[in-house]
Amino acid sequence: MKPILTVMLAMLSISLFAQDKEDKFPASATELYLDVPVVTPGSNNEPPSDAIVLFDGKNLSKWKKETKDSLPGWKIENGELVVVPKKGGIATKQSFGDIQLHIEWMSPVMKGETGQGYANSGIFFMGKYELQVLNSHGNETYSNGQAGSIYKQYAPLVNASRPPGTWQEYDVIFTAPKFSEKGTLVSPARITVFHNGVLIQNNVSIWGNTSFKGLPKYTKHDEKLPLALQDHTDPVRYRNIWVREL
Ligand code: MG
Best exposed site among 6, 48, 145, 181 by fewest CB in 10 Å? Predict the structure, then answer.
Protein backbone atom coordinates (compact mmCIF):
# COMPACT_ATOMS: atom_id res chain seq x y z
CA MET A 1 0.00 0.00 0.00
CA LYS A 2 1.29 3.51 -0.88
CA PRO A 3 2.33 5.52 2.19
CA ILE A 4 -0.08 8.36 1.38
CA LEU A 5 -3.05 5.96 1.28
CA THR A 6 -2.00 4.41 4.59
CA VAL A 7 -1.93 7.87 6.20
CA MET A 8 -5.36 8.75 4.78
CA LEU A 9 -6.91 5.52 6.08
CA ALA A 10 -5.38 6.12 9.51
CA MET A 11 -6.79 9.68 9.61
CA LEU A 12 -10.24 8.45 8.59
CA SER A 13 -10.33 5.83 11.31
CA ILE A 14 -9.19 8.39 13.95
CA SER A 15 -11.93 10.77 12.79
CA LEU A 16 -14.62 8.03 12.96
CA PHE A 17 -13.43 7.09 16.46
CA ALA A 18 -13.70 10.73 17.55
CA GLN A 19 -17.25 10.97 16.17
CA ASP A 20 -18.18 7.86 18.09
CA LYS A 21 -16.83 9.39 21.30
CA GLU A 22 -18.99 12.49 20.85
CA ASP A 23 -22.09 10.54 19.84
CA LYS A 24 -25.05 12.70 20.84
CA PHE A 25 -27.44 9.82 20.32
CA PRO A 26 -26.14 6.77 22.11
CA ALA A 27 -28.43 3.72 22.14
CA SER A 28 -29.54 4.63 25.69
CA ALA A 29 -31.04 7.92 24.40
CA THR A 30 -33.99 5.96 23.03
CA GLU A 31 -34.48 3.64 25.99
CA LEU A 32 -37.39 4.39 28.35
CA TYR A 33 -37.73 3.43 32.01
CA LEU A 34 -41.41 3.66 32.97
CA ASP A 35 -43.51 2.33 35.80
CA VAL A 36 -45.25 -0.36 33.74
CA PRO A 37 -48.01 -2.04 35.78
CA VAL A 38 -47.60 -5.76 36.28
CA VAL A 39 -50.50 -8.00 35.25
CA THR A 40 -50.51 -11.72 35.85
CA PRO A 41 -52.02 -13.36 32.78
CA GLY A 42 -54.68 -16.00 33.34
CA SER A 43 -53.92 -19.65 32.87
CA ASN A 44 -56.47 -22.29 31.82
CA ASN A 45 -58.69 -19.64 30.22
CA GLU A 46 -58.92 -17.60 33.43
CA PRO A 47 -59.01 -13.78 33.36
CA PRO A 48 -55.84 -11.73 33.88
CA SER A 49 -55.27 -10.35 37.37
CA ASP A 50 -56.55 -6.82 36.63
CA ALA A 51 -59.77 -7.90 34.88
CA ILE A 52 -63.22 -6.95 36.10
CA VAL A 53 -65.06 -10.26 36.01
CA LEU A 54 -68.64 -9.70 34.84
CA PHE A 55 -69.75 -13.32 34.83
CA ASP A 56 -67.90 -16.28 36.30
CA GLY A 57 -70.72 -18.82 36.25
CA LYS A 58 -71.86 -18.23 39.83
CA ASN A 59 -74.32 -15.33 39.86
CA LEU A 60 -75.65 -12.27 38.06
CA SER A 61 -74.65 -9.77 40.74
CA LYS A 62 -72.92 -7.53 38.17
CA TRP A 63 -76.03 -7.34 35.95
CA LYS A 64 -79.47 -5.78 35.84
CA LYS A 65 -82.29 -5.51 33.35
CA GLU A 66 -81.26 -3.30 30.45
CA THR A 67 -84.18 -0.93 30.75
CA LYS A 68 -84.54 -0.63 34.52
CA ASP A 69 -82.75 -1.25 37.79
CA SER A 70 -84.21 -4.64 38.55
CA LEU A 71 -82.99 -8.23 38.49
CA PRO A 72 -82.10 -9.56 35.05
CA GLY A 73 -84.53 -12.23 33.90
CA TRP A 74 -81.92 -14.55 32.41
CA LYS A 75 -80.96 -17.86 34.03
CA ILE A 76 -77.79 -19.68 35.00
CA GLU A 77 -77.48 -23.34 33.95
CA ASN A 78 -74.32 -25.42 34.50
CA GLY A 79 -72.43 -22.20 35.21
CA GLU A 80 -73.60 -20.70 31.90
CA LEU A 81 -75.67 -17.56 31.40
CA VAL A 82 -78.69 -18.31 29.21
CA VAL A 83 -80.94 -15.81 27.46
CA VAL A 84 -84.53 -16.33 28.55
CA PRO A 85 -86.56 -15.27 25.51
CA LYS A 86 -88.71 -12.15 25.94
CA LYS A 87 -87.27 -11.30 29.36
CA GLY A 88 -85.43 -8.39 27.73
CA GLY A 89 -81.78 -7.48 27.40
CA ILE A 90 -79.44 -7.27 30.36
CA ALA A 91 -76.79 -4.67 31.14
CA THR A 92 -73.89 -4.29 33.54
CA LYS A 93 -74.46 -2.24 36.68
CA GLN A 94 -71.06 -0.68 36.09
CA SER A 95 -70.44 1.76 33.24
CA PHE A 96 -67.48 1.51 30.89
CA GLY A 97 -65.70 3.61 28.27
CA ASP A 98 -62.63 2.15 26.55
CA ILE A 99 -62.35 -1.56 27.28
CA GLN A 100 -60.84 -4.88 26.36
CA LEU A 101 -63.61 -7.50 26.47
CA HIS A 102 -63.44 -11.27 26.54
CA ILE A 103 -66.72 -13.11 26.13
CA GLU A 104 -67.62 -16.68 25.20
CA TRP A 105 -70.93 -17.64 23.63
CA MET A 106 -72.72 -20.63 22.15
CA SER A 107 -75.55 -20.82 19.65
CA PRO A 108 -78.09 -23.50 20.49
CA VAL A 109 -78.91 -26.03 17.79
CA MET A 110 -82.28 -24.81 16.46
CA LYS A 111 -84.38 -26.82 14.01
CA GLY A 112 -86.05 -24.93 11.19
CA GLU A 113 -84.46 -21.56 11.94
CA THR A 114 -82.53 -19.59 9.31
CA GLY A 115 -80.92 -16.18 8.75
CA GLN A 116 -81.35 -13.64 11.53
CA GLY A 117 -83.66 -16.11 13.31
CA TYR A 118 -80.90 -18.63 14.07
CA ALA A 119 -79.46 -17.93 17.51
CA ASN A 120 -79.49 -14.15 17.43
CA SER A 121 -78.15 -12.13 20.33
CA GLY A 122 -75.59 -9.34 20.49
CA ILE A 123 -73.11 -7.41 22.53
CA PHE A 124 -73.97 -3.74 22.78
CA PHE A 125 -70.99 -1.60 23.74
CA MET A 126 -72.19 1.35 25.78
CA GLY A 127 -75.66 -0.13 25.19
CA LYS A 128 -75.56 1.38 21.69
CA TYR A 129 -73.08 -0.25 19.32
CA GLU A 130 -73.78 -3.90 18.46
CA LEU A 131 -71.28 -6.63 17.76
CA GLN A 132 -73.54 -9.33 16.32
CA VAL A 133 -73.93 -12.75 17.90
CA LEU A 134 -75.57 -15.24 15.52
CA ASN A 135 -75.11 -18.74 14.21
CA SER A 136 -73.19 -18.05 10.99
CA HIS A 137 -71.92 -21.57 10.42
CA GLY A 138 -73.67 -22.58 7.20
CA ASN A 139 -76.41 -20.02 7.84
CA GLU A 140 -76.82 -17.33 5.18
CA THR A 141 -77.88 -13.78 5.96
CA TYR A 142 -76.78 -10.29 4.93
CA SER A 143 -73.02 -9.97 5.47
CA ASN A 144 -73.19 -6.97 7.76
CA GLY A 145 -75.63 -8.90 9.93
CA GLN A 146 -73.72 -12.17 10.33
CA ALA A 147 -71.74 -13.20 13.42
CA GLY A 148 -68.90 -10.78 14.06
CA SER A 149 -70.45 -7.96 12.08
CA ILE A 150 -70.85 -4.49 13.48
CA TYR A 151 -74.55 -4.79 12.88
CA LYS A 152 -75.78 -3.08 9.67
CA GLN A 153 -72.33 -1.47 9.31
CA TYR A 154 -69.30 -3.72 8.85
CA ALA A 155 -69.23 -7.34 7.69
CA PRO A 156 -66.50 -9.37 9.40
CA LEU A 157 -63.25 -9.71 7.40
CA VAL A 158 -63.72 -13.49 7.44
CA ASN A 159 -66.29 -15.93 8.80
CA ALA A 160 -64.52 -17.72 11.68
CA SER A 161 -67.70 -19.32 13.04
CA ARG A 162 -67.89 -22.67 14.76
CA PRO A 163 -71.04 -24.82 14.49
CA PRO A 164 -74.02 -24.38 16.81
CA GLY A 165 -73.60 -26.29 20.05
CA THR A 166 -69.91 -25.39 20.36
CA TRP A 167 -68.37 -22.57 22.36
CA GLN A 168 -66.95 -19.56 20.55
CA GLU A 169 -65.17 -16.47 21.80
CA TYR A 170 -64.81 -12.82 21.02
CA ASP A 171 -61.85 -10.74 22.15
CA VAL A 172 -62.53 -7.08 21.58
CA ILE A 173 -60.83 -3.72 21.92
CA PHE A 174 -63.44 -0.98 22.04
CA THR A 175 -62.69 2.73 22.07
CA ALA A 176 -65.56 4.98 23.12
CA PRO A 177 -66.61 7.91 20.93
CA LYS A 178 -65.81 11.44 22.07
CA PHE A 179 -68.12 14.42 21.89
CA SER A 180 -67.62 18.16 22.30
CA GLU A 181 -69.45 20.10 25.02
CA LYS A 182 -72.00 21.12 22.39
CA GLY A 183 -72.58 17.51 21.43
CA THR A 184 -70.78 17.30 18.09
CA LEU A 185 -68.76 14.17 17.41
CA VAL A 186 -65.02 14.70 18.01
CA SER A 187 -63.94 11.12 17.35
CA PRO A 188 -66.04 8.06 16.49
CA ALA A 189 -66.06 4.81 18.45
CA ARG A 190 -63.54 2.26 17.16
CA ILE A 191 -63.51 -1.50 17.44
CA THR A 192 -61.14 -4.40 16.86
CA VAL A 193 -62.52 -7.92 17.16
CA PHE A 194 -60.98 -11.40 17.22
CA HIS A 195 -63.43 -14.29 16.69
CA ASN A 196 -62.03 -17.58 17.94
CA GLY A 197 -58.58 -15.99 17.74
CA VAL A 198 -59.04 -14.76 14.16
CA LEU A 199 -59.04 -11.01 13.38
CA ILE A 200 -62.45 -10.08 11.96
CA GLN A 201 -62.70 -6.30 12.61
CA ASN A 202 -59.52 -4.27 12.33
CA ASN A 203 -59.88 -0.99 14.22
CA VAL A 204 -62.92 0.15 12.23
CA SER A 205 -64.72 3.44 12.92
CA ILE A 206 -68.29 2.89 14.03
CA TRP A 207 -70.80 5.07 12.15
CA GLY A 208 -73.18 5.65 15.04
CA ASN A 209 -75.83 3.93 17.14
CA THR A 210 -76.84 0.54 15.79
CA SER A 211 -80.02 1.01 13.83
CA PHE A 212 -82.26 -1.74 12.42
CA LYS A 213 -83.92 0.66 9.97
CA GLY A 214 -82.25 3.74 8.54
CA LEU A 215 -78.71 5.01 8.80
CA PRO A 216 -76.79 4.97 12.07
CA LYS A 217 -76.05 8.30 13.68
CA TYR A 218 -74.37 9.58 16.82
CA THR A 219 -76.14 11.22 19.70
CA LYS A 220 -74.01 12.66 22.49
CA HIS A 221 -73.84 10.42 25.54
CA ASP A 222 -71.86 9.91 28.73
CA GLU A 223 -68.16 8.96 28.60
CA LYS A 224 -69.02 5.67 30.29
CA LEU A 225 -72.15 3.54 29.90
CA PRO A 226 -73.17 -0.05 30.70
CA LEU A 227 -72.31 -2.98 28.44
CA ALA A 228 -75.48 -4.78 27.32
CA LEU A 229 -76.41 -8.21 25.97
CA GLN A 230 -79.34 -8.62 23.62
CA ASP A 231 -82.44 -10.76 24.05
CA HIS A 232 -83.44 -11.52 20.47
CA THR A 233 -85.73 -14.31 21.74
CA ASP A 234 -83.18 -17.11 21.20
CA PRO A 235 -81.63 -19.12 24.09
CA VAL A 236 -78.01 -18.18 23.34
CA ARG A 237 -75.54 -19.04 26.11
CA TYR A 238 -72.68 -16.97 27.52
CA ARG A 239 -69.81 -17.69 29.87
CA ASN A 240 -66.46 -16.30 31.06
CA ILE A 241 -67.15 -12.60 30.58
CA TRP A 242 -64.53 -10.11 31.70
CA VAL A 243 -63.31 -6.65 30.81
CA ARG A 244 -60.21 -4.59 31.40
CA GLU A 245 -60.62 -0.84 31.47
CA LEU A 246 -58.14 0.83 29.12
MG1 MG B 1 -78.31 -9.29 17.37
Answer: 181
